[in-house]
Amino acid sequence: MSEGTAGSAAISAVASSKAIQPGESAYVLVTIDQPLAGVHDQRLHILSNDAVEPEQAHPVRFEVVE
Asked: Which of 10, 18, 36, 42 is deepest in the core (most CB within 10 A)?
């Protein structure tokens, strides 16, 4: 998982397991700290040792209400 900022939003992600075998799954807890109200679009990047697709970017849309 990668962490970072996009605009003024701080995004972090923690997986339930750091090593996932083929065919297995894990949960990912994504935390977003966004002080501005409104709808926001970001990307969650997942890094792996896959030779064909070592990085996947997944769209994340969220809404902050006051």
From this structure: 42
